[in-house]
Amino acid sequence: MLREDKMPHIWCPGCGHGIVLSAFLRALAKKELDPNKVVVVSGIGCSARAPGYLDFNTLHTTHGRAIPFATGIKMANPDLKVIVLTGDGDSSAIGGNHLIHGARRNIDLTVVVFNNNIYGMTSGQYSPLTPHMAKATTAPYGNFDYPFDLVELVKGAGATFVARGATAYPVQLEKYISQGLDHEGFSVIESISQCPTYFGRKNKLGGPMDMLKWQKENTSLGGKDESKIPLGVLVQTERTEYSSNYYKHVKSLAGGHKGE
Amino acid sequence: MTKKLVQGNEACVEGAIKAGARFFAGYPITPSTEIAEGMAQRLPREGGAFVQMEDEIGSIAAIIGASIAGTKAMTATSGAGFSLMQENLGFAAMTEVPIVVVDVNRGGPSTGTPTKPSQGDFMQARWGTHGDHPIIVLAPSSVQEVYDQTINAFNMAEKYMVPVILLYDEVVGHMREGIEFTQPPEIVERKRPTVNPKDYLPYATDNSLVPALAPFGTGYRYHMTGLSHDETGFPTGNPETIENLVKRLNDKIEDNKEDIIQYKTYDVDDADVILLAFGSPVRSARQAQKQARARGEKVGLIQLITLWPFPHDLLQETFAKTQASFIIPEMTLGQLADEVSKSVPREKIHSVLRNDGTLMTPAQLDEAVKGVM
Question: Which residues of chain A are at the B interface, by a Cβ-Cβ cutoff of 8 Å?
Fold first, then answer.
């Protein structure tokens, strides 16, 4: 599944993105899909470089637009398994509109969000998922914005499968992604990922190991501790999937077509 | 074949269906909305898909995605929406994904005059997206031409693997004329790779300079990116590879200008004065030209159909042969005349400009002809 000739990857030492990608690949491997029928789409940013390392049909698009590109692919050929790999800025800032409308349509896309709380590719500006008063190169006095809760955002927009994992819990993350891949409809799996180079350094969070420790101390598997960030499958509902519903109607309409 | 009375935008819908378009994504905007409505009605019955997207950025992204999956795809918009599409228009040019974008031109800048005609997007259609990029822009001036040129737009897009803009003003989009839904002589389908998938280089080209990009899902797994890339499709920072890519992207259009460029001429060979126009002003110009000929004045008309690549060779040859004065009616502050001045001396160009949302009238052009004769 890897394009080994494209290694080494561009991610910094200690970056969590490799852990997210490997969890994704382990989940995908077990599905035994025909690689010719798998499409992986990304936008712009550190996470967006992931598809280049994968031996599928891979598409590296413009900033924030992976979901509408993927929507076109899925509607043109619903037999394809279409996956979006995106980051916190890519999905919730510049691509926020597409994220909520993808969720609203409930189109069958699996969206994995690599959330490192920062714009890493451009070297550390605050994103809509940077915590309030955390530091970034564009928030030298702390981030005056308040962050989105991505899970609540896409839940409110109508996503039918939503999970949150963390790179500190790769086995669980793999499980969430696996369930998301099986789900027919718009599924979002957010993974907390560490960026020691920019977010960690700017906020004096220590090295990668310290950041993983922070994740364990501040998250709660299954959301048992309500004072912490909940991890787990947080939304799982059934609603008619967009492309299959569309083509069901197309079949009946085209059947009634009398030609010219 | 019997004629049918249809609107310009309806003719666009029928042309797209005839050309094989089976995907449309769009966002409502006057004066193009009838195209979205028509596609929403027609596509499901043809087995295709229509999606109303959340904005124009998503609309063009979705049609590029559909085309990457092998389906002919179109969107339609007007100036404000066309501006929003510019980044992804460049993506399609860079990755060589064929799409058709209809821009039904209304008055600008900004929200401007939504229900009135303009040609102010003449330059935006060519240079709206950043960087040196290839593009083809076609400009019908009648309802029949909208139908014919919509089909031609898909053919050109598939043949040269390039985004094609169909640019016509509000008057052409909204007027009704009797037209024939003729069977086009040719429906072009994009080249498919013939090599073994293991040996496939998506951006390797032969003399045509046009790559054979396999639709996703057909067994050829490759990488597509808006970054500067090599023949494999993967990003590169190699200066020579970057230079060759940008050159090839532009040369594949430049080298095929003769095949791409379409125009019509009326009584040009002996002309002392030549009217040159595109879109709805062509209609008034033709009337004024006929009136002048009836008076015995040697007046000709050049109707541009392909706007970009711009037909500089035609203008240079025509001027060399006739030494004629050019009258250029346009619904802009002179965008077309500026381009013409690269081939015809400035002092031989007489602009007739209209930027108030009203039509260029035959009387106005008749006056202009009398003033130059």
Answer: 6, 35-37, 39, 41, 51-52, 55-62, 65, 67-77, 79-80, 97-98, 101, 246-247, 249-250, 253-254, 256-257
